[in-house]
Design goal:
Largest sheet: 2 strands, parallel
Radius of gyration: 22 Å
Order of helices and strands: HHEEHHHHHHHHHHHHHHH
Shape: globular
Structural class: mainly alpha
Number of helices: 17
Strand order of the largest sheet: 1-2
Number of strands: 2
């Protein structure tokens, strides 16, 4: 079993990763606190969360952004929460609090061979989340414009998509709101689902299955919230620092352990993980970069000695 496979072996998890998953679980309990007697709050959390979940105690930032725009209001408060988070801690909540991120982490520990995507392959798909973001916000502005029209009496011009277009089909919404509500109503989800319900279930399966083989598949390629947080990544105050290892060696380490496929470009500092996809999961910190560097040097020495031996033999 290679280094990449070992990174997703649950029995070999480092204590930091176990601690991270505990924090994720506690965050999930808080977000569904009504189930445990916790009162609802007006807190806006800077990651994907479904406000309409049966036991929700907080508001998801992206869903709130969509709802505010479709109501014809400027989302000052929501944007303030999103970008104050972005310039301070970056995407740390994606790695340590997002419930859909936790689900993907759990799926990555299933005993199936993991696919380490080449950088070129990942780059071909990395902009899909921007297309999701653009289509979602465009739909929101269309709804807001039509609602503001003096001649239009229909308050829901796009039907169920009129308040938060992306959240209707979001796999997170389906998993944490749509299915739980169906269970509480004691109905057969598949029997009662209309075309929208089947689309929602299909998207959920289409996202969860690849997440078994490609860690954090949704976060890397589809999440619009991640796209919103990307532009300010160079200005965030919280960064992971890794000293004593060259950029090339660090990229080798990241390719073997990072669930987000982070790689550093030539303009990046070798002392910091400076990439917009970094979710501060800490995997690169616990994989002992100094030992990795030593292993790389030993491999280079071994290859050089082997070449010299072959040359002497010839």
């Amino acid at each position: 079993m290679g280094r990449f496979e070992n990174s997703y072996n649950f029995r070999r998890l480092h204590q930091l990763q176990i601690f991270r998953h505990i924090i994720q679980a506690l965050a999930f309990v808080f977000l569904n606190g009504k189930l445990f007697g916790i009162a609802a709050t007006g807190l806006i959390v800077p990651y994907l969360h479904v406000t309409q979940a049966p036991f929700s105690t907080a508001h998801g930032a992206y869903e709130s952004l969509e709802y505010t725009i479709t109501r014809g209001l400027f989302p000052l408060l929501v944007l303030g929460v999103i970008y104050l988070t972005a310039i301070t801690v970056g995407r740390v909540f994606c790695g340590w609090a997002c419930p859909f991120g936790l689900v993907q982490d759990i799926l990555s520990y299933l005993p199936f061979k993991k696919q380490k995507l080449a950088t070129a392959t990942a780059n071909q798909y990395k902009d899909i989340k921007w297309a999701v973001l653009a289509f979602s916000l465009f739909s929101c502005f269309v709804v807001a414009w039509r609602r503001a029209s003096n001649t239009l009496q229909d308050t829901d011009p796009l039907g169920v998509f009129s308040d938060s277009p992306f959240s209707v089909i979001s796999p997170s919404s389906t998993l944490f709101a749509y299915i739980p509500w169906m269970m509480l109503w004691n109905t057969n989800v598949l029997a009662t689902a209309g075309i929208t319900g089947w689309i929602k279930m299909g998207i959920l399966v289409a996202v969860l299955v690849p997440s078994i083989y490609v860690p954090r598949f949704f976060c890397r390629f589809l999440c619009p919230m991640g796209a919103l947080l990307e532009p300010t990544f160079r200005y965030r105050a919280l960064k992971i620092q890794v000293k004593g290892i060259q950029r090339e060696d660090l990229n080798v380490l990241l390719s073997d352990v990072c669930p987000m496929g982070v790689q550093l470009g030539k303009e990046s500092s070798s002392d910091y993980i400076d990439n917009s996809n970094c979710i501060h999961c800490g995997k690169c910190l616990v994989e002992e970069p100094h030992k990795l560097r030593q292993r790389i040097l030993e491999q280079d020495s071994s290859s050089s000695a082997s070449s010299n031996t072959q040359a002497a033999s010839s």
